[in-house]
């Protein structure tokens, strides 16, 4: 008597072990060859009426076997096929020669994909308003199943759903840096991910590729680098909180599930069921600091009638000669002091105050400003030693 169990092919399952009891308990009673397990009864052994014996075969379903379409019911006709045949001889209930007998049982095993996907968001502790920072997203498949690319493939990576979607909505006060290859995904990395950015919502969305190129194997990991510009006017002390999520597509023909994180989406990229949680969501915070490089200059120019000083009597400039150098001014005439100033960044400067002490032997007569608020000085602030006007 023997039992022959034809396992699913080696492309679907990996044979691990076989153990028999009763008439199949002898050492080397059972063997495996090319996923066909054969167990021979103990030679001369009798299998009494009412007796039983067990053969336990352990196999590993390979992580890349496609999941069966929903609904996942027992004995799915598309599941893994396993057929066992028992062969023996008896006299078929009559006196006479022994006759070969056989019995067969077939089982189907429904295949489901479960992949513990995780995401880790890393951001710098500090960032300067007006500068650039890097966000790093590390995604990983902790198994046990591979996540397969869309099957059949979508028309293009930008339409339909990827079987894996990573979402990162950038904080208010930031935007994606306008540079090439941003976000950056390592070429030839697992999953063939591509990313898009929607400025109106500040959302970075990354999908794995369609078809076999999008397969993300159990044990695989991938980094996505997002370069982000902090607006120059973000106030000092602002906490930029940024969260990223990862979800799996749970629709036919090859649904994917995450048993721990819960993040799922449909073919329209719309989240379904529970929102990502646990290791399917990761947040980090960057504290904003400010730095502003302010610069100022000053020059003095003699003028006949200064702008911004109201109605004044013009005073001619002296004629340049041997004893009158260029830039001279007559007593009672006017000098215009030009005070250019600016902010070289990177951050906006707030509460900026420019103070200019009027020179002795002069009197303030007026000013023009191209930015900010000009505060009129009082006479008591300055010395007025001669009847000259500035």
Main attributes of the structure:
single chain; 390 residues; mainly beta; Immunoglobulin-like; 3 domains; eight-stranded mixed beta sheet; five-stranded antiparallel beta sheet; 24 strands; 0% helix; disordered C terminus
Could you walk me through the main structural features you see in this protein, from its secondary elements to its overall organization?
The protein has strands spanning 2-6, 13-20, 30-33, 36-40, 55-61, 80-90, 99-109, 115-122, 126-128, 132-144, 164-169, 174-176, 184-185, 194-198, 203-207, 221-230, 239-249, 264-265, 271-272, 281-289, 292-296, 299-303, 334-338, 341-346. It has no helices and 24 strands. Strands 9, 11, 14, 15, 17, 18, 19 and 20 form an 8-stranded mixed beta sheet that branches. Strands 3-4-1-6-7 form a 5-stranded antiparallel beta sheet, with no helix packed on it. Strands 8, 10, 12, 13 and 16 form a 5-stranded antiparallel beta sheet that branches. The radius of gyration is 41 Å and the shape is rod-shaped. Helix content is 0%, strand content 39%. It folds into 3 domains: 2-109, no CATH class; 115-290, Sandwich (Immunoglobulin-like); 291-390, no CATH class. It is mostly beta strands.
């Amino acid at each position: 008597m023997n039992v022959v169990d034809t396992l699913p092919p080696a492309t679907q399952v990996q044979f691990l072990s076989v153990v028999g009891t009763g008439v199949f308990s002898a050492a080397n009673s059972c063997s495996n060859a090319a996923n066909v397990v054969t167990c021979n009864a103990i030679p001369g052994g009798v299998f009494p009426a009412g007796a039983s014996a067990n053969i336990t075969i352990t196999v590993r379903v390979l992580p890349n076997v496609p999941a069966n379409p929903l609904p996942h019911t027992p004995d799915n006709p598309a599941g893994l096929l396993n057929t066992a045949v028992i062969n023996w001889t008896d006299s078929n209930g009559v006196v006479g020669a022994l006759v070969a007998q056989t019995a067969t049982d077939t089982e189907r095993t429904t295949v489901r994909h479960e992949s513990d996907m995780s995401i880790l968001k890393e951001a710098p502790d500090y960032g300067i308003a007006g500068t650039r920072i890097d966000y790093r997203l590390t995604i990983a498949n902790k198994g046990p199943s591979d996540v397969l690319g869309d099957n059949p493939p979508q028309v293009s990576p930008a339409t339909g759903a990827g079987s894996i979607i990573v979402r990162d909505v950038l904080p208010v006060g930031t935007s994606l840096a306008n540079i090439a290859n941003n976000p950056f995904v390592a070429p030839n990395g697992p999953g063939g991910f591509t990313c898009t950015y929607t400025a109106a919502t500040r959302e970075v969305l990354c999908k794995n590729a369609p078809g076999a190129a999008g397969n993300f194997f159990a044990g695989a990991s991938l980094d996505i680098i997002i370069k982000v510009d902090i607006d120059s006017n973000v106030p000092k002390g602002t906490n930029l909180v940024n969260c990223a999520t990862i979800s799996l597509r749970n629709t036919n023909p090859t649904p994917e599930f995450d048993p721990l994180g819960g993040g799922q989406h449909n073919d329209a990229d719309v989240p379904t069921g529970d929102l990502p949680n646990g290791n399917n969501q990761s947040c980090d915070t960057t504290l904003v600091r400010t730095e502003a490089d302010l610069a100022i200059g000053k020059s003095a120019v003699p003028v006949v009638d200064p702008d911004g000083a109201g109605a004044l009597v013009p005073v001619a400039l002296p004629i340049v000669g041997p004893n009158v150098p260029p830039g001279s001014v007559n007593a009672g005439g006017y000098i215009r002091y030009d005070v250019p100033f600016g902010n070289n960044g990177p951050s906006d400067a707030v509460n900026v105050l420019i103070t200019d002490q009027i020179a002795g032997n002069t009197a303030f007569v007026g000013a023009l400003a191209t930015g900010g608020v000009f505060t009129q000085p009082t006479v008591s602030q300055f010395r007025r030693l001669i009847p000259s006007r500035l």
